[in-house]
Every structure is written in C-alpha cells, then in structure tokens.
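User: My advisor, Dr. K., asked me to get a structural model of this assembly before our group meeting. I'm new to this, so sorry if the format is off. These are the inputs:
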Amino acid sequence: MGLVFLKRLKGLVLPLVLLMVWEIASRQGRAYALTFIPIEKIGRSLIETILSGELLTNLLASLGTASTGLLIGGTVGLGLGSLMGLYPRVDKIIGPVFHSFRQVPLLGWIPLIGLWFGNGCLAKTLVVCLASFYPMVLNSYAGIRNVENNHLEVGRVLGASRWQTYRYILIPGALPFIFIGIYHALAFSWISTVGSELLFTAGPGLGGMMQTAQMAAKMDIVIICVASIGVVGLLMNVSLAKLSGHLLRWRSTR
Amino acid sequence: MGNLIHPDFKRSAKSLSGELSIQSLHKQYRLERNYLNVLENINLTILPGEFVSIVGPSGCGKSTILRLVVGLDSDFQGRILLDGKPITSTSTDRGIVFQDHRLFPWMTVWENIAFALVNSDLPSAEKRDIVSLNIKRVNLTGFANAYPHQLSGGMAQRAAIARALVNEPKILLLDEPLGALDALTRLYLQAELQRIWIQHRSTMIMVTHDVEEALFLGDRVVVMQANPGRIKRVVPVPLEHPRDRSSPLFHRLKDEILADLIDTDSTAEAKRAKSLALRSDLG
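Assistant: The format is fine. Below is the predicted structure of the whole assembly, which you can bring to the meeting.
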C-alpha cells in the first residue's frame, strides 16, 4: 500500500518543482512579478472567482459546449463510419468527399462558420461537432472493417438479424477502435471548445473568460483558466480510461 | 460413457428426424478465367442419428461440404436435403463447430452460448435453464462467467460445442473440431464428443485429418480424394461404441483407409496426400 502511495506521489514531483521555479522567478523583482504572478496572488484570485461563481459558470458553459459537440459529432461520426465500413457503395460515394473535407484544418472553417452561424453558441458547438466527428468516422470505419469474417459467419449460422449482427458482433468487435476514436474525439472536442471560445467570444466559456482577462491584463485569471482547462482535460482522460478498461475487460491483458 | 452402446441404438424414437441427403452435388470455384472443380458428383445419404466421419487430403473439399450443408454457401449444383427439404440458407436446425472455436471474445462463456438463442421465442427463464444445462453438458460448470481468453483451447472448443447444441439442431456439423488441440486434450474430447452424441442423439458429420479419430467416432467413414474433390469410398465401421482402439478390426480398417489415402496416382498430389496421411497417422 505504502509503496503504491509513494509511486503515485512521483507524478507530483515535476509540478512541485515547476511551482517552486515559478515562485522563485516571481520574487526576482517587480517586472518579473508581472509575468510570473506570485502563487499566493493566484490563490487569492482563484478563491475569488470560485466564490463569485465566475469560474463555475464559465467552466460549465465550456463543458456544455464540449459535451454537446462530442455527443452529436461523435454519434453522427460513429453512424457514418459504420455505414462506410459496412457498405462499400456508401464508402465509394461519401468517402472522397469526406476525405477531402478532412484535409481542411478546423481553423480553416472558422471564417465560414462565423459567416453562416454567427459567433455564438451554435457556431462553437458546430466547431466542436466537426472536431469529434472526424476521428469517430475514421476509427469506427477501421473498427468495422477489422471485425473478423469468422465471427460474422457465426452470426449467420445462428440466424442473427442485420441489427443483431450490428449490435452484438460488429459494434463490440469494433469497440477497441471505437474507443481510440472516442479518445481522440474527447481530446479534440475539449481543445476545440476552448479554441472556438477564443475566436467566437459571445457567451460564457473558459476561452472567453481568458480573453477578457488578458485584455484587462489580469494574468492571474488567465493562469487560472489555463490550469482549469488542463485539469478538466486530465480528468476527462482518466475517466475515459476507466470506462474503456471496463468495457474492454474481455481483452487479454498482455 | 461407461456402458456399451449397440450400433442400433440410433434407431431409437427420438432421432427419426435429421436425415441428410446429398444428391449429385457439384461445386466449382472460379479462378480468374478457369473453373476449379472443388466437389464433383457427391452422393451421400446420412441416416437420422448417424455419426459420419469424412477424411481426405487437404483440398478435397471436405470442409466445403460442411459449409454447403450449414448454409453459409449456396453456390452449388445438385441437391442437399434435410428431412426431404432443400437447404437454402442457414438455420438453427443445423449447428456447426469450427476448427477455431470462434467464440466472441467480448462475451463470457454464458453470453456466447446464450447468443445462439438470440431469436428463440422461449421465455427468458427457460433460456437460462437451457444455457446452464448445455454448460453442464460440456463440463464447463464454474466457467460460465469466464471470457474466452481465460480458457484453454479444449475448454473454448467445448464452449463452442455447447453453443452449437443449444438449439438442439437436427444435425451437428464438426469441421475439424479437435484439429487445433494437443494430443491428450484431443483424446479426452473425442470421448466427450461421443458421450454428447450418445446423449444428444442427433445426426453428426465430422471432418477430420485424423483417421483414428474418424474411426473412433464414426458409424461410417467417408474417404475423399482431391482434384476434383470426390468420394472415393465409404467405409462402414461395424464396431460397438465405445470403441477399443486396439482391436484388430479397428487396426485393419485404419490401415485400409490410410492405404486409400496414400494410394492415388503417382502425381505430386499423391505425395502431398501421402505426407498428410502419415501426419494424421502420427497425430
């Protein structure tokens, strides 16, 4: 037990060292204190933003955008990827369009999305949808194609319907790939949420909060936002790893 | 096992259905512009409750016959009738066990077996009973919640047998079911298969490379040859079950069948068949 605890602490060493370097830097004079805000001051602002509800409001808004986008983009992506994987005809018709759209970086869509959908909630959600859509299409396609024909034959022998085959053979068989897709989609959706909030500034969100703070030269708030984004991202990743560990427990651990 | 079973037990009341009739069956594969005769004029009638083994060199189409009978491939000429009705596609009245167990790795033993009942109208309590009965039948009690990767090859194959038996098929097809197992597990599972066959009383067809296995289990042994795949000879095995592998008749039949397998024309094919027969002799 004690050993496990010590091992966990190892991960804390580097952050603590960085914090110390930060603190030392902030004490090198007035000019330094403007860029390297003293930790104590950041702490005070943190409590302030928490108590005023400012941090929570913006955090929840960002989480809302990210999860809506992830859910819609991910589901549509899973559906399209499955269809393309199952039906070569769909792949032939949609594939080329999909792959050329995919080459356009997300930032490249921003001007058009802004023009068509304004710079509010809808535009942000749309960017996040796109961000999680691509990895889900690619990975569910690969996953479906990767399901062994042997297993599909068993489904045929047992008289499984098309839907039963999809639900009980194709989806579980593709699940390891689908989870890779979800991992990427989750990371991209969070990154693109913050990114789109920096660009489409209307409405609440951590990105917008950061932007406002930067313009008011409140570096402590900027740092709090950056840290929150990092911590939330980490928590998302950890919980997804737990979930995939459970759902993929049937795989032999090598 | 235990008690001696007389060859005529199969005429018991329960196994009146399950008669398979294969009539002038032909099958070709297309290789670019050429046609390859995989099966040529196969005629075989298998009685209800009978155990028929099929042996032959690689490429003689013996596994193809099973694929056609189970309904995975309907591209053939001729007729395949089960109890007088032509086979058109897959159906739960025909079960199959493949050489690789083909259990779904994402399902437990229980779930794998229960999946065979996915379209059954039985109430769920009854389904549960059937699944646990079949788990017991293949001696896997206690492993219901194990995932396939946690099982040995022999256990996984037994789970696959249970999955094939769950629907009480009229005919069970065994495609080299013990081919991938080690020699000891194989001997053990041969006895298990025989016990299941005796209890289950359905028609069974087993494809194998192992002449001894074919003789140990089969009421008749169908010897096939390749290029094109055809039946060379059908050997009745007039021995009571369970069979004594050391009996003189058993040995004589084994030698005869091995000679059959080796005795093809002196082409490259013959050499291949010979090495195969020798290998199955060792196996």
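One thing worth pointing out at the meeting: Residues 47-246 of chain A form a domain with the MetI-like fold fold (CATH 1.10.3720.10).

User: Perfect, thanks a lot.
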